[in-house]
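Worked example

This section walks through a single chain of length 182. The input is the sequence exactly as stored; nothing has been trimmed or padded.
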Amino acid sequence: MKLRPTDALTLGVILVGAVAWGVLGVRPIAERIASLERERDATRLSIARGDDFVRGLDDLQTYLTEFEQALADLDRLVPERVDATARLNEINAVAMRCGLRPSMVRPDQPQPRGAIIAHPITVRVSGDYEHLLRFIFDVESLPRHTRVTRLDVEAEPLGAGSVLAQLELTAYSIDSAAGGGS
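Given that input, the structure is written out below as C-alpha coordinates.
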Protein backbone atom coordinates (compact mmCIF):
# COMPACT_ATOMS: atom_id res chain seq x y z
CA MET A 1 0.00 0.00 0.00
CA LYS A 2 1.28 3.30 -1.04
CA LEU A 3 0.69 6.39 1.01
CA ARG A 4 -0.40 9.47 -0.62
CA PRO A 5 1.53 12.60 0.19
CA THR A 6 -1.37 14.12 2.08
CA ASP A 7 -1.74 10.96 4.14
CA ALA A 8 1.98 10.98 4.92
CA LEU A 9 1.79 14.64 5.84
CA THR A 10 -1.23 13.99 8.07
CA LEU A 11 0.50 11.03 9.68
CA GLY A 12 3.64 13.18 10.21
CA VAL A 13 1.59 15.99 11.77
CA ILE A 14 -0.17 13.48 14.05
CA LEU A 15 3.18 11.93 15.01
CA VAL A 16 4.78 15.34 15.68
CA GLY A 17 1.66 16.40 17.60
CA ALA A 18 1.80 13.22 19.72
CA VAL A 19 5.51 13.73 20.49
CA ALA A 20 4.92 17.41 21.26
CA TRP A 21 1.94 16.55 23.45
CA GLY A 22 4.06 13.95 25.28
CA VAL A 23 7.05 16.28 25.69
CA LEU A 24 5.14 19.50 26.34
CA GLY A 25 2.02 18.15 28.07
CA VAL A 26 2.41 14.76 29.70
CA ARG A 27 6.05 14.97 30.79
CA PRO A 28 5.66 18.22 32.81
CA ILE A 29 2.48 16.86 34.38
CA ALA A 30 4.28 13.61 35.32
CA GLU A 31 7.21 15.59 36.75
CA ARG A 32 4.78 17.79 38.70
CA ILE A 33 3.02 14.68 40.05
CA ALA A 34 6.37 13.20 41.10
CA SER A 35 7.31 16.50 42.76
CA LEU A 36 4.00 16.63 44.64
CA GLU A 37 4.46 13.01 45.78
CA ARG A 38 7.93 13.91 47.14
CA GLU A 39 6.46 16.93 48.94
CA ARG A 40 3.67 14.75 50.33
CA ASP A 41 6.18 12.20 51.62
CA ALA A 42 8.31 14.98 53.16
CA THR A 43 5.21 16.47 54.79
CA ARG A 44 4.19 13.07 56.19
CA LEU A 45 7.70 12.63 57.61
CA SER A 46 7.56 16.12 59.12
CA ILE A 47 4.17 15.39 60.66
CA ALA A 48 5.48 12.11 62.10
CA ARG A 49 8.47 13.93 63.58
CA GLY A 50 6.13 16.60 64.93
CA ASP A 51 3.95 13.93 66.54
CA ASP A 52 7.07 12.41 68.12
CA PHE A 53 8.10 15.87 69.34
CA VAL A 54 4.65 16.58 70.79
CA ARG A 55 4.63 13.15 72.43
CA GLY A 56 8.04 14.03 73.83
CA LEU A 57 6.62 17.31 75.18
CA ASP A 58 3.82 15.39 76.88
CA ASP A 59 6.44 13.09 78.45
CA LEU A 60 8.48 16.12 79.49
CA GLN A 61 5.43 17.76 81.04
CA THR A 62 4.67 14.57 82.96
CA TYR A 63 8.29 14.39 84.13
CA LEU A 64 8.25 18.04 85.24
CA THR A 65 4.99 17.55 87.11
CA GLU A 66 6.38 14.47 88.88
CA PHE A 67 9.64 16.32 89.64
CA GLU A 68 7.75 19.30 91.12
CA GLN A 69 5.71 16.88 93.25
CA ALA A 70 8.90 15.18 94.43
CA LEU A 71 10.36 18.57 95.40
CA ALA A 72 7.17 19.47 97.27
CA ASP A 73 7.34 16.12 99.08
CA LEU A 74 10.99 16.76 99.96
CA ASP A 75 10.16 20.24 101.25
CA ARG A 76 7.41 18.70 103.39
CA LEU A 77 9.59 15.84 104.67
CA VAL A 78 12.80 17.82 105.13
CA PRO A 79 12.08 21.57 105.25
CA GLU A 80 14.64 24.35 105.42
CA ARG A 81 13.58 25.51 108.90
CA VAL A 82 12.41 23.87 112.08
CA ASP A 83 9.79 25.32 114.40
CA ALA A 84 10.95 23.63 117.61
CA THR A 85 7.92 24.71 119.66
CA ALA A 86 5.49 23.37 117.08
CA ARG A 87 7.44 20.09 116.87
CA LEU A 88 7.38 19.66 120.67
CA ASN A 89 3.63 20.39 120.79
CA GLU A 90 3.02 17.97 117.91
CA ILE A 91 4.98 15.13 119.60
CA ASN A 92 3.27 15.78 122.94
CA ALA A 93 -0.16 15.72 121.24
CA VAL A 94 0.63 12.43 119.46
CA ALA A 95 1.75 10.85 122.76
CA MET A 96 -1.45 11.89 124.53
CA ARG A 97 -3.63 10.84 121.58
CA CYS A 98 -1.98 7.39 121.74
CA GLY A 99 -2.88 7.04 125.42
CA LEU A 100 0.61 7.63 126.80
CA ARG A 101 1.58 9.91 129.65
CA PRO A 102 4.47 12.14 128.54
CA SER A 103 6.72 13.18 131.41
CA MET A 104 9.32 14.94 129.25
CA VAL A 105 9.47 16.27 125.70
CA ARG A 106 12.77 18.14 125.22
CA PRO A 107 14.68 19.30 122.16
CA ASP A 108 18.36 18.37 122.02
CA GLN A 109 21.19 20.18 120.22
CA PRO A 110 20.88 20.17 116.40
CA GLN A 111 23.54 18.03 114.73
CA PRO A 112 24.88 19.01 111.30
CA ARG A 113 25.21 16.01 108.97
CA GLY A 114 26.50 17.27 105.65
CA ALA A 115 23.73 18.96 103.70
CA ILE A 116 21.13 18.26 106.40
CA ILE A 117 20.75 19.01 110.08
CA ALA A 118 19.37 16.39 112.48
CA HIS A 119 17.05 17.80 115.16
CA PRO A 120 16.73 15.21 117.96
CA ILE A 121 13.96 15.41 120.54
CA THR A 122 14.10 13.34 123.71
CA VAL A 123 10.73 12.04 124.86
CA ARG A 124 9.96 10.14 128.05
CA VAL A 125 6.54 8.48 128.24
CA SER A 126 4.74 5.85 130.29
CA GLY A 127 1.82 3.65 129.39
CA ASP A 128 1.15 0.19 128.04
CA TYR A 129 3.30 -1.44 125.39
CA GLU A 130 0.63 -1.42 122.67
CA HIS A 131 0.14 2.34 123.07
CA LEU A 132 3.91 2.81 122.82
CA LEU A 133 3.95 0.88 119.53
CA ARG A 134 1.04 3.02 118.23
CA PHE A 135 2.96 6.17 119.27
CA ILE A 136 6.07 5.06 117.37
CA PHE A 137 4.01 4.28 114.29
CA ASP A 138 2.14 7.59 114.45
CA VAL A 139 5.32 9.62 114.95
CA GLU A 140 7.03 7.93 112.00
CA SER A 141 3.88 8.53 109.91
CA LEU A 142 3.83 12.29 110.51
CA PRO A 143 3.94 14.48 107.39
CA ARG A 144 7.43 15.59 108.39
CA HIS A 145 10.20 12.98 108.13
CA THR A 146 10.73 11.83 111.74
CA ARG A 147 12.44 8.66 112.86
CA VAL A 148 12.93 6.93 116.21
CA THR A 149 16.72 6.87 116.46
CA ARG A 150 16.96 5.51 120.00
CA LEU A 151 14.54 3.61 122.19
CA ASP A 152 15.00 2.47 125.80
CA VAL A 153 12.09 0.55 127.33
CA GLU A 154 11.73 -0.87 130.83
CA ALA A 155 8.83 -2.23 132.85
CA GLU A 156 7.22 0.36 135.09
CA PRO A 157 7.97 -0.63 138.68
CA LEU A 158 4.47 -0.29 140.10
CA GLY A 159 2.30 -0.55 137.00
CA ALA A 160 0.90 -3.85 135.87
CA GLY A 161 1.71 -4.19 132.18
CA SER A 162 2.96 -0.61 131.87
CA VAL A 163 6.32 0.47 130.51
CA LEU A 164 8.55 3.47 130.81
CA ALA A 165 10.15 4.48 127.55
CA GLN A 166 12.69 7.07 126.59
CA LEU A 167 12.90 7.78 122.87
CA GLU A 168 15.04 9.96 120.72
CA LEU A 169 12.98 11.20 117.80
CA THR A 170 14.96 12.82 115.00
CA ALA A 171 13.58 15.19 112.40
CA TYR A 172 15.70 16.77 109.69
CA SER A 173 16.07 20.09 107.92
CA ILE A 174 18.14 21.23 104.97
CA ASP A 175 21.38 23.03 105.82
CA SER A 176 21.42 25.69 103.11
CA ALA A 177 24.81 26.92 104.37
CA ALA A 178 26.31 23.50 103.58
CA GLY A 179 24.89 23.47 100.06
CA GLY A 180 21.76 21.48 100.80
CA GLY A 181 19.31 24.23 100.01
CA SER A 182 18.33 25.64 96.67
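What to look for: The mean pLDDT is 82.
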